[in-house]
Write a structure and sequence with these properties.
There is one protein chain. This protein is an alpha+beta fold and 424 residues long. The chain folds into two domains: 10-224 and 338-423, Zn peptidases (Aminopeptidase, 3-Layer(aba) Sandwich), CATH 3.40.630; 226-335, Alpha-Beta Plaits (2-Layer Sandwich). The chain contains eleven helices and 18 strands. The chain has helices at 10-27, 46-59, 134-137, 155-173, 201-204, 251-260, 302-321, 340-343, 347-359, 374-381, 404-423, and strands at residues 66-67, 73-77, 88-93, 108-110, 118-119, 127-128, 144-146, 182-187, 208-212, 219-224, 226-235, 278-286, 290-299, 327-336, 365-369, 387-388, 392-393, 401-403. The strands form four sheets. It has an eight-stranded mixed sheet, sandwiched between helices. A four-stranded antiparallel sheet has the order 4-7-18-17. The longest helix has 20 residues, at 302-321. 48% of the residues are buried.
């Protein structure tokens, strides 16, 4: 039987529908994480999916599948070869972004997409337009999954979760395929920068790993932003507004002036692309006495990252100096580093991934991530972890969508990767 031309390979065609079935089941489970939570995971509902995954892994024969005290779901698919093969990890995160609701997700399956505009039924103001989304225009004739326009979809990263699970199911059902031991890990709280807070690398037991948390089919990402969080706290002088003349110093106005002083034609997410970094006010809160601006600072280059931090410190000091008796405090927190410096020392990882992608019928593309993954932190902590595509697009928005054919290709890539790792 001839292979459906829409698919990159016969294996991708075989695995697309089983992966889709898992994906559609997983996305309707609300796993949204929360900023500023004192618990770990930040929301208990993330564990609803993690527990389900543990049960499904056990049903597939991974007898050691378990959920640890911190909400990490882990399991081992035993090797089918007798020679020594370094243990390979496969990782995805279960949580979805706090920025857009993940409750009551209603996925829409669009078969044989006609290449035109897709009006999302829950909110007709939300439209997928190929004129605005160049990637969408490449998928005419494919099958797509969208949101209904009122929530995110959750492809970030339930697509990765579904692809790992479907690949494990296929490998477990085909013990004749040679592969070493695979360690599976599903993490919480990646979207709030805490996905690896309690990740026990030694207990995980892998020599190297891959996250399935990318986007466009065929991409391998071995470079991320380096990232800082910068917190700017302004202190003013509080006073009853009726008697405030000559006394009141509003911390809220100082915070607003500081945000207004940020560059508008450069160094912002809305004006940068490719390898350009940015500074971005993520949140602002407070009152007249004290106000806090939290910014995220990103760049691929460490020297430029330091320059961005210095700019924020200067602008904060200038803002405080504009008002007598105003005070400002600036603190920074390292979030993650560009993983490329470490991964350049492990070319066997990206080489194996490139070959796996080719066997899945795609042309591999090296790309940098304008963001971060659990893999960036794990790499810095000693577990080299590049990132692979999962096929999703327009993450963290009501316009999130994914291609079914690309889901199949991602699952096929994992299956091939396991075999290539054993071959080498």
């Amino acid at each position: 039987m001839a292979t459906d031309a829409r698919y990159s390979s016969p294996l991708a065609a075989e695995l697309a529908e089983p992966t889709l079935e898992r994906f559609l089941r997983y996305v309707v489970i609300d796993t949204q994480s929360a900023e500023g939570s004192d618990s770990y995971p930040s929301t208990a509902k993330q564990l609803d999916l993690s527990r389900l995954l543990v049960e499904e892994l056990k049903e597939l024969g991974l007898d050691d599948a378990h959920l640890d005290a911190h909400g990490y779901a882990m399991a081992t698919l035993p090797a089918t070869v007798e020679h020594d093969v370094p243990v390979l990890g496969l990782i995805a995160h279960v949580d979805t972004s706090p920025q857009v609701s993940g409750a009551n997700v209603k996925p829409q399956l669009v078969r044989d997409y006609d290449g035109g505009r897709i009006v999302l039924p829950g909110d007709p103001a939300q439209v997928l337009d190929p004129a605005e989304l160049p990637e969408l225009s490449l998928h005419a004739g494919h099958d797509l999954v969208t949101t209904d326009g009122t929530t995110l979809l959750g492809a970030d990263d339930k697509a990765g979760v579904a692809e790992i699970m479907a690949a494990v199911e296929y490998l477990a059902a085909h013990p004749e395929l040679p592969h070493g031991a695979l360690r599976v890990g599903f993490t919480p709280d990646e979207e709030v920068g805490a996905g690896t807070t309690y990740f026990d690398i030694e207990a995980f037991g892998a020599a190297a790993a891959f996250t399935l948390d990318g986007s466009t089919a065929g991409e391998i990402q071995d470079e991320t932003f380096s990232a800082l969080e910068v917190i700017v706290r302004f202190r003013g002088v509080s006073m009853h507004p009726g008697f405030a003349k000559g006394h009141l110093v509003s911390a809220l106005k100082l915070a607003a002036d500081f945000v207004a002083s940020l560059p508008r034609d450069r160094l912002s997410p809305e004006t940068t692309e490719d390898r350009e970094g940015f500074v971005h006010p993520h949140s602002i809160e407070g009152n007249g006495a004290e106000a806090t601006v939290v910014l995220i600072v990103r760049d691929f280059d460490e020297e430029l990252l330091a320059a961005h931090e210095a700019l924020l410190r200067r602008l904060a000091a200038e803002t405080a100096a504009s008002a007598e008796r105003a005070q400002v405090e600036v603190t920074t927190r390292r979030q993650y580093r560009n993983m490329k410096g470490v991964l350049d020392g492990h070319p066997e990882l990206t080489e194996a991934a490139e070959e796996a992608i080719r066997r899945a019928g795609l042309e591999p593309v090296r790309a940098g991530i304008r963001g971060g993954t659990d893999g960036a932190v794990l790499t810095e902590l000693g577990l080299p972890t590049p990132n692979l595509f999962d096929g999703g697009h327009e993450y963290h928005s009501e316009r999130e969508w994914i291609c079914v054919q690309d889901i199949g290709a991602a699952t096929a890539t994992i299956v091939h990767l396991a075999q290539i790792w054993a071959e080498r």
